[in-house]
Design goal:
Dihydrodipicolinate Reductase, domain 2, binds nicotinamide-adenine-dinucleotide, nine-stranded mixed beta sheet, six-stranded parallel beta sheet, 2 domains, Rossmann fold, alpha/beta, 13 helices
């Protein structure tokens, strides 16, 4: 087991209770979204913007009307000059690891957009990086933060052991840029949300997957925009997933449409505001009409930011601390590997161990490589969070009063 420490960027008691000054790295479409949100956030304020494309960074800052913001192309330089205390990484997935490493090595905790990395091997290198620096590295899986998803999770919790979870995602999704060039734009860029939501809904973790992906003839994506996957969960239950990003009709929510079948009954969520639960013979009812509690907490990236800032202040472990996210990413890579091998069954524990060997082979930083080699297994490496002594479970967060924000 490795020794885990916290660095000087961490202590809660030394932080001011005002809005945390942050640098946003990546001033593209989503970086602009983060900056607009941060401008009005009660939890953090933007003090710096970084992009390799300086003109774009300056234009994004100007279009949002931000003032007194340091702009540059170096994370460490802008963070230092702006007096930042944390970094929000909204670059393309291929750049996530490099940017996270620059920030964490300089002592800045990072909230990183999904997907954490293009591969599980790259994700494991970042787990070791977080270990070494002792800084908080949290993945922003923003689709965990929806009040009706929390209500659906509560409903699922009433149902007893699971038999099957179904999720369907069908959208006509035009997002020119890196997505339209990816080999697996659905699984890598979008399904990571849904796979992670599955892990939020239940502690019944995925162990194996069979998947087929394909690209419909009319698709505007270069890679596979559609997929069908079946995951085996630890209990023996199944997670049955299908999706497409080029479906111009009867579109689902971006959160997907969900149904859960279990020992005592069933529950459904339309991905928006309708949660239904039918258990112990009561018949399906809307959660709100049935007296179910729908919380009123911050949603999406605001919810994710709120948890990040709270973890910095309290030293608690956020739901998506880097280690916890690795299995969500393994679901994506397992599905891709299965699809590329004609639907072969992929065992996620084996994929994790192969990824550790790959991570060690790829890593050029001796301290990170040595730490990876010291793990008895990938499962060991992702078992203990580097950050925080108190795990922030979704249930614990839900129990907090809305007054917290
Ligand atoms: N949570 C969500 O719902 C959601 C939605 C959209 C995008 N995203 C995620 O946000 C991230 C960015 O997506 P986007 O649509 O804004 O992409 P984008 O291509 O529009 O913008 C990415 C920006 O990062 C910059 N960049 C690349 N490498 C960099 C580096 N090393 N240093 C500094 N800047 C660098 C690019 O110049 C570009 O301006 C992706 O990880 C994506 O998956 C999440």
């Amino acid at each position: 087991m490795t020794h885990r420490v916290r660095n000087s960027s961490a202590p809660a008691e030394s932080r001011s209770e005002s809005r945390i000054p942050v640098v946003v790295v990546g001033a593209g479409a989503m970086g602009g979204g983060w900056l607009r949100m941060l401008r009005a956030s009660p939890h953090a304020r933007p003090v710096g913007v970084v992009d390799l494309n300086l003109e774009l960074a300056a234009a994004t800052v100007a279009s949002i009307g931000l003032e007194n913001v340091v702009v540059g192309d170096s994370v460490t330089d802008v963070a230092e000059r702006s007096g930042a205390e944390a970094v929000v990484n909204v670059t393309v997935p291929q750049a996530h690891r490099v940017v996270n490493e620059q920030a964490l090595r300089a002592g800045y905790p990072v909230l990183c957009e999904k997907p954490l990395a293009p591969t599980v091997a790259e994700a494991l290198r970042q787990v070791a990086l977080a270990d070494l620096t002792g800084g908080l590295l949290m993945v922003s899986q923003s689709r965990r933060y929806f009040n009706h998803l929390a209500a659906f999770r509560d409903a699922v919790g009433e149902l007893g052991p699971l038999a099957a979870v179904h999720a369907e995602f069908y959208r006509e999704d035009h997002e020119p840029g890196f997505r339209e060039q990816m080999a697996h734009p659905l699984l890598v860029d979008m399904s990571i949300h849904h796979f992670d939501q599955l892990r939020y809904l239940s502690s019944d973790e995925p162990v194996a997957v069979r998947c087929n992906s394909w690209n419909p003839p009319w698709s505007w994506y270069a890679g596979d925009a559609a997929a069908a996957a079946e995951f085996e969960l630890a209990s023996g239950a199944r997670f049955v997933y299908s999706g497409s990003r080029c479906t111009p009709g009867l579109q689902t929510s971006y959160n997907a449409e969900w149904r859960v079948y279990a020992e005592r009954g069933a529950a459904a969520w339309d991905g928006e505001q309708v949660v239904q639960v039918d258990f112990d013979g009561r018949g399906a009812e809307g959660a709100e009409r049935a007296g179910g509690v729908v919380a009123d907490r911050l949603e999406g990236i605001e919810g994710s930011l709120e948890e990040f800032v709270r973890s910095l202040r309290d030293g608690t472990t956020p739901q998506n601390e880097v280690r916890a996210n690795v299995l969500s990413l393994a679901m994506v890579e397992g599905a891709i590997r299965s699809s590329e091998r004609g639907g072969e069954r992929i065992v996620l524990a084996e994929l994790l161990e192969e990824s550790l060997a790959q991570a060690i082979a790829d890593e050029r930083q001796n301290d990170i490589a040595d730490l990876l080699r010291s793990w008895t297994s990938a499962a060991d490496g992702i078992s203990t969070p580097a950050w925080g002594s108190v795990p922030a479970t979704p249930a614990a967060i839900a129990e907090e009063t809305p007054d917290d924000h």
